[in-house]
UniProtKB/TrEMBL annotation:
<comment type="similarity">
    <text>Belongs to the ThrE exporter (TC 2.A.79) family.</text>
</comment>
<feature type="transmembrane region" description="Helical">
    <location>
        <begin position="29"/>
        <end position="49"/>
    </location>
</feature>
<dbReference type="GO" id="GO:0005886">
    <property type="term" value="C:plasma membrane"/>
</dbReference>
<keyword id="KW-0997">Cell inner membrane</keyword>
<keyword id="KW-1003">Cell membrane</keyword>
<dbReference type="InterPro" id="IPR024528">
    <property type="entry name" value="ThrE_2"/>
</dbReference>
<feature type="transmembrane region" description="Helical">
    <location>
        <begin position="56"/>
        <end position="75"/>
    </location>
</feature>
<keyword id="KW-0472">Membrane</keyword>
<feature type="transmembrane region" description="Helical">
    <location>
        <begin position="81"/>
        <end position="98"/>
    </location>
</feature>
<keyword id="KW-0812">Transmembrane</keyword>
<feature type="transmembrane region" description="Helical">
    <location>
        <begin position="110"/>
        <end position="132"/>
    </location>
</feature>
<keyword id="KW-1133">Transmembrane helix</keyword>
<dbReference type="GO" id="GO:0015744">
    <property type="term" value="P:succinate transport"/>
</dbReference>
<protein>
    <recommendedName>
        <fullName>Threonine/Serine exporter ThrE domain-containing protein</fullName>
    </recommendedName>
</protein>
<feature type="domain" description="Threonine/Serine exporter ThrE">
    <location>
        <begin position="8"/>
        <end position="135"/>
    </location>
</feature>
<dbReference type="InterPro" id="IPR050539">
    <property type="entry name" value="ThrE_Dicarb/AminoAcid_Exp"/>
</dbReference>
<dbReference type="Pfam" id="PF12821">
    <property type="entry name" value="ThrE_2"/>
</dbReference>
Length: 154
């Protein structure tokens, strides 16, 4: 249970922090933090049931994609404003670092293994975003229309 609480807190802080570093608008920081925190919790929970790298990253990316699109509509900001800071915690930076270290130390087989792992994580993130975009384009089109209709009535 504490892992979920810590995951939420640090997922939120890492997303907000990276949003600040990348100079995102202030009005998008809290929604981006919430999306990042929820995605990290999904990553943790899926990891409890599936000990691989693909499913936790795939499901985390789907959550970022769906919630990021929803926040983009509600906050009226580009979806990339939410994607970039939320994705930071899922990017396989440590795996790539270890692979490069192993490569420079002459441990080619360990380096190759790490590169394949990083490529696998990257592909699962990309596929997760594709799935989320496909679902979001179907679901959120009506929400966009309703919001636009309400704005036109004002």
């Amino acid at each position: 249970m504490m892992q979920i609480v810590y995951g939420f807190i640090f997922g939120f802080l890492s997303s907000v922090g990276f949003g600040i570093i990348t100079n995102n608008p202030r009005r998008t920081l809290i929604p981006a933090g919430l999306v990042g925190a929820i995605a990290w919790i999904v990553y943790i929970v899926v990891g409890w049931f599936n000990h691989g790298l693909i499913m936790p990253n795939l499901m985390g990316a789907v959550v970022i994609g769906l919630l990021g699109n929803l926040c983009a509509i509600l906050v009226k900001a580009p979806v990339n404003i939410f994607y970039v800071p939320c994705l930071v915690s899922l990017v396989p930076g440590a795996i790539l670092y270890d692979s490069m270290k192993n490569f420079t130390l002459g441990k080619d087989s360990l380096a190759a293994y790490g590169f394949v792992k990083a490529l696998t994580v990257g592909m699962s993130l990309a596929i997760g975003f594709i799935i989320a975009e496909t679902i979001a384009n179907k679901i959120y089109a009506k929400l966009k229309q309703r919001i636009n209709q309400k704005e036109n009535l004002k």
